[in-house]
Amino acid sequence: MTYLNMMVPGQSGRVVGFSDDSKMVRRLYELGIQPGRSIIYLRNAPFRDPLEVQVGYNLITLRKSEASLIAIEVDE
Questions:
Q1: In this predicted structure, what is the pLDDT of residue 48?
Q2: d(CA 31, CA 56)
Q3: Residue 4, SS3?
Q4: How far is CA 29 from CA 10, 17, 24, 74, in A?
Q5: Which of 7, 11, 56, 65 is the most buried (most CB within 10 A)?
Q6: Rounded-to-10 torsion of CA 34, 31, 43, 75
Q7: Domain spans of the chain?
């Protein structure tokens, strides 16, 4: 298990949970980032912030601080 902010572009995996239970987690749920969902790390801006991921058919841009809350089981 790792966190989304530690992945590299092109990696994919499955959301397994969150490291915090806050308003930010509620926002991530509203964006469709929920345990069990597949996620693909597409690309990042310079200095790795922000980063773009795909969840289902949605492209989502996240700050590095937001990505650090998302626990991922990386696909082999």
A1: 77
A2: 11
A3: helix
A4: 23, 11, 9, 20
A5: 7
A6: 10
A7: 2-74
Dihedral pair phi/psi, residue 63, rounded to 5° = -75, 155
Which residue, 39, 43, 49, 30, is CA-closest to 70?
39
Q: Residue 2 half-sphere exposure, CB side, CA atoms within 13 Å?
A: 13
Residues found in the chain: 76
- pLDDT for 8 equals 94
Q: What are the per-10-residue average pLDDT scores of the chain (76 residues)?
A: 95 95 89 97 91 96 94 94
Asked if 28 and 70 touch (Cβ cutoff 8 Å), the reply is yes
The predicted structure's pLDDT at residue 57 = 95
Domain 2-74 matching CATH 2.30.30.90: the answer reads yes
